[in-house]
Amino acid sequence: MGVRGNMTAWLCALTALLALTLAACGGDDEGGSPTPSRTGPTLEPALEQQLRELLGKWTAAETKITYNLHSVIGSQSQDGQLVYYQQPPSVREDIVKTGSTTAYLVLPETAYACAAYPNVNPSCAIVPADEAQSAIVGAPLVQRPTATSIDDLLAQTLSLAAAPEQQVLGRSTTCITLTLPFGQLTTEATGCFTDDGLLLSETSTSPVSTYTLTATQSEQPQQGDFEAPYPIVTAPPSATQPPAS
Q1: 14-28, 63-77, 100-114, 192-206: which has the minimum mean pLDDT?
Q2: How confident is the model at residue 245 (pLDDT cuts 50, 70, 90)?
């Protein structure tokens, strides 16, 4: 299939799989629906409150974090880079692999899907905001949560456990492991946050995949980060039809 085809297949599989993980965790709901009631075991109150506060800080953070991304999907192992930009209510995510980039931006008035492959002109297309949001990596912690989705996430969490602290970028982090439903099975996600709410590490293990995000750089976003990075075209860049090898 060639390098470009392999890279595109990996990006498609990763995005789709992690979006399914988000759906299993309740999804992103900005429609103002009532706070869901718990359907699983009662969580340890102090740990639940700690996680809620950390997620609330993460929601409000203005940040640009670059992560090393390692994933295992089925029998395939891949490494790349994920760059996450947040300046509420704007959010952007780039996934970079072998010189190729896919990017999704969700902005107050529009949303873009963008792609850049070797030997092909990079481009962006205006897309519905919900499509761009769902394409952003669907990890329960990395994706920018709304207040409602924090409630959704905690309502469906089967258990919480304190995990060993980690040093990331020279900073101490508080780590919490969530056990979440994955169909009839479960998945575990461990997020490690600084005191001011930056998510510097996340590891998720499901019956079909594992992935790890580890921050390598944290900085403030720039205004230009929330503009389309490539020329805008009328048709979305296809993630399922890579350029011929």
Answers
A1: 14-28
A2: very low
Among 129-133, 163-167, 186-190, which range has the highest average pLDDT? 163-167
Cα distances (Å, whole numbers) of residue 163 to 79, 122, 167, 191, 192: 24, 41, 13, 9, 9
Q: Are strands 76-87 and 159-168 parallel, antiparallel or unpaired?
A: unpaired
What is the pTM (predicted TM-score) of this model? 0.78
**Cβ burial 110-119 (10 Å sphere, 16+ → b, else e):** ebbbbbbbee
| Displacement of CA 180 from its chain's centroid (Å) | 16
Residue with the larger pLDDT of the pair 20 and 181: 181
SS3 15: helix
* φ/ψ (deg, to 5) at 52: -60, -40
Spatial CB neighbours of 155, under 8 Å, sequence gap ≥ 6: 26, 35, 36, 37, 38, 39
DSSP 8-state secondary structure symbol assigned to residue 226: G
Structure-block tokens of residue 235: 């048709």
Q: State whether residue 224 is helix, strand or coil.
A: helix
Residue 79 corresponds to which tokens in the numbers above?
A: 């490494």
- More confident site: 3 or 214: 214
Evaluate whether 158 touches 42 at the Cβ level (below 8 Å): no
Taking alpha carbons only, the member of 92, 94, 86, 65 closest to residue 217 is: 65
Closest of 190, 179, 106 to residue 142, by C-alpha: 190
The pLDDT score that the predictor gives to residue 198 is 95
| Secondary structure element (H or E) that encloses residue 191, with its range | strand 185-193
